[in-house]
Amino acid sequence: MGEVAECCEVDLSVVSRHLALLARAGVLEATKHGRAMRYRVCYAHLVRSFRSLAAALDECRPAKGESCDAVCC
Q1: For the purposes of burial, counting CB atoms within 10 Å of the CB of 18, is it exposed (0-12), middle (13-18) or buried (19 or more)?
Q2: Of 17, 27, 56, 64, which residue is the least packed, with the fewest Cβ within 10 Å?
Q3: Is the dihedral of CA 27, 30, 36, 38 positive or negative?
Q4: What is the rounded distance in angstroms from the CA atom of residue 27 to the CA atom of residue 22?
Q5: Hey, where are the domains in the chain?
Q6: Segment holding 52, helix H or strand E
Q7: Residues 23, 33, 8, 41: is their CA dihedral positive or negative?
Q8: Does an H or E element contain 50, and which?
């Protein structure tokens, strides 16, 4: 977590909250090592999420010659 805060010039508490939120969402897996938290990306969850998003966007795609406003908005 400290590495992320250092590279981004963001307060450690902000980084901690964001990482915890991503862990609750299933994007990261959190494990505690002493006082430190280690995070690992859950790639399978991300792949499923991105595939679902791509499918939803594909359904929303306008047909040839149709404007985006007519389909999605």
Answers
A1: middle
A2: 64
A3: negative
A4: 5
A5: 1-41, 43-73
A6: helix 43-60
A7: negative
A8: helix 43-60
pLDDT digits 0-9 by tens, 23-35 = 999 999 999 999 8
First to last CA, the chain: 39
63 contacts: CB under 8 Å, gap ≥ 6: 71
Tokens of 49: 């999420």
Residue with the bigger pLDDT between 73 and 14: it is 14
Q: What is the CA radius of gyration of the chain?
A: 18
| Class of residue 49 by CB neighbours under 10 A (exposed 0-12, middle 13-18, buried 19+) | middle
Token look-up 């090592």 returns 33
Local structure of 15: helix, strand or coil: helix
